[in-house]
Amino acid sequence: MGTELESRLLSDEQLQRYQADGYLALESWIDEAWMQRLNTTLDEYIEISRTAAPDDRRFDTEPSHTPENPRLRRINQPTDLDPTFAEFALDGPATDLAQAILGPDIRYHHSKLNIKWHSGGDEVKWHQDIQFWPHTDFSPLTIGVYLRDVDDEMGPMGIVPQSHKGQLYDLADENGSWTGSLSKTDLETVDLDSADYLKGPAGSVTVHNCCAVHGSEPNLSDRMRPLLLQTYSRADSYPLIGVGANGATGRSGHQIVRGGAPTHIEIGGRRMPAAPDWSRGYTSIFEVQKNKE
Predict the structure, then answer these.
(1) What distance in Å separates the CA atoms of residue 183 and residue 187, rounded to the nearest whole number?
(2) Count of structural domains within the chain
(3) What CATH number is associated with residue 65?
(4) What is the average pLDDT value for the chain, to the nearest integer?
C-alpha cells in the first residue's frame, strides 16, 4: 500500500481491519452530488421497469410485480445500462476505493443493484460470493453503496467477522443441487451471533471480501433498500471462464479499470509471461508473428 490515493481514502487502521475481519463499513462515504445522480438514475429505471416485458433481462422482479405496483429485486448489469452507473463503477468513487484496498492495478468484474423492495422484499440467505464466480485467487471484493437510509427493519447486510479466513462452503444441498446458500448443517459451524449488520445513512459503503459469509433478512419496512454493488479484484486475479457467472458479467466485465494489465501470471507456484488480452479481437498466430518480423 502506501500510495497517495490509498493514504487519502483509508487509514492504516481501516486497511488493517479489512484484512483482519474481511469487511469494512464506511458511514456516509459517498458525497451528496454522487448520491443525487445515482438515485435519479435508479428512479428512472424503476419507471422503465413498470412497462418492461417479463423477459426483459435488465430487471429481476418479484412475481407480484405490476406496472401499478412495481416490485424489483434487482437491476442487472447497471454499468452496461447507464453512463452514470458506468462512471461510478469504472472510473469513480467505487474504483478509487477498490484501488485503495487492492493496490494500483485493478480489474472490474461486474455490478448489480439489489433493491429489496419494501414490505417483504426477499431475504438473501447466508452465503459466500467466490463460489458464484471463481477466480485464480481470493482478492475479489465487493463494494456496496446504500442509496437510501438503512436501519435494522430494512434487512441490512450482515457479515460474519473473520469468516473470509475459514472454510469455503458447498452452496448445494445433499443431492448436489445448487442452492446458493449454506446448508443448515454448515450454518451450525458459523458464528452467526457475531454477525455485524451494516446499516447506515444514505451514502454509506460496505466492503466485503469474496470469502466472507454474509446475508440479509427480508425488508419489513415501508421503504425500499437499494444497494448498488460492484466487484473488483487485483489485475492479476483472473475469473475462471466456464464456471459460475463469470461468462455473464456483461460488456464491461473483466476489464482493467486502474493501472495496467499484468505481464506475468503465477499458477501453481510457476511464474510465466502472459500474452496481451485479445478477448476483444484476435487474428491468428500467423499475423501476430508476421507483424513482429
Answers:
(1) 6
(2) 1
(3) 2.60.120.620
(4) 93
